[in-house]
């Protein structure tokens, strides 16, 4: 009879592990992340430093705790700036938080991008993407991505003579 009890215990432990694994794999909707603000920061030499404030909206029924943030900003398909922060906190369920991340843009990257944009064809828009992740308090993390286009003016404003 002791063999039967041990077998039942093993079965209960396996079922508990499987149920907790299913709960951990629960499907969540993606975070909605927008740039809420940008403030200049003091840089070193040939770099541009900015404090990027991200508005993170959580459309899920569970809060997202984080302990560390990383972001990468691409412009026209090329890396423009990157940043990390050890900020920690929580984005409430069906709520939002503003998270500040210092980012650095290399002057050499900016020069390269400027020359790339002047490559002879007329630019009507600039494409950008912001990708990143909120690191969870354990080994989990929540990734996010935001993309878009900035339309550039194609004609001078009315009443302005371009000559």
Summarize the structure.
With 163 residues, the protein is an alpha+beta fold. The protein has a single domain (29-151), classed as Immunoglobulin-like. It contains two helices and seven strands; from the N terminus they run αβββββαββ.
What's the structural blueprint in terms of helices and strands?
Layout: H1 2-24, E1 32-41, E2 47-58, E3 64-75, E4 78-91, E5 95-106, H2 107-117, E6 125-135, E7 141-151
Antiparallel strand pairs: 1-2, 2-5, 3-4, 3-6, 4-5, 6-7
Report on this model:
It is a single chain. Residues 21-25 have low confidence and may be disordered. The protein has one domain (29-151): Immunoglobulins (Immunoglobulin-like, Sandwich). The protein contains two helices and seven strands. The chain has helices spanning 2-24, 107-117, and strands spanning 32-41, 47-58, 64-75, 78-91, 95-106, 125-135, 141-151. Strands 1-2-5-4-3-6-7 form a seven-stranded antiparallel β-sheet. The termini are far apart. A hairpin with a 2-residue loop joins β3 and β4. By secondary structure, it is of the alpha+beta class. Helices cover 21% and strands 50% of the residues. It is elongated.
